[in-house]
Amino acid sequence: xxxxxxxxxxxxxxxxxxxxxxxxxxTAAATAAPxxxxxxxxxxxADPLGGLFAGLPEAATDSVAPLKEKEKIPETHKPVxxxxxxxxxxxxxxxxxxxxxxxxxxxxxxEEATYxxxxxxxxxxxxxxxxxxxxxxxxxxxxxxxxxSHEHGGDLGKxxxxxxxxxxxxxxxxxxxxxxxxxxxxxxxxxLILRLx
Length: 197
Prior knowledge:
By secondary structure, the protein is an alpha+beta fold. The protein is built from 5 helices and 4 strands.
C-alpha cells in the first residue's frame, strides 16, 4: 500500500441461502429482522430466501372470484331404481278382492275409504318429527290396513320398478324420502304411502 490509498473493495456477491437449518450456518436473511412470513417481501423488495423466488409475482389470495349462481355446476342425482315404503290399504266394495284379515266381506264404499284416508293423512301431515311420523304411520297400519303387510307396520320392503301396480309405483317413486303421499287408488283399494328410502 502506498500512502493514503484506501484498501480495494471487493464486489458484493449475492448467493442464495442453502439450507441454513441443515448446515448450521446463518445467512443475511436469517439475521435480518423477522417478518410475518418467510415469503413476505423485505423493505427493499428482496426475497428473504436469497433470490430463490426472485422475479415471480406475488400470490394474490383474492384473485379467484366465487362462482355466480348461473355458473354453478348443477348437482346430479342418481336415478332412483328402488324405494322402500310403508303403506296403509283401505279396501272397498269395488276392490279386486273385497276381503281382508279385518273383515271377511268389505262393505266400505270407495268414497268412505277415500274419506277415511284423507282424514288420517290430515292428522299425519301435522306431525313434523320424521321418527314420530313413521311410528304413527306404523301404528295405524297395524290396526287399520287391509293388507297383509299390517303385521310389519305396512312395510313393503324395497322394491324396484315393475313390481307394483302402476299407480302405486308411480306415487311411491315420485315421493321424497319421509314424504307422505296423497290418497292413491289402485285395483286393490285406496292407499296412503310413506316413503322411507
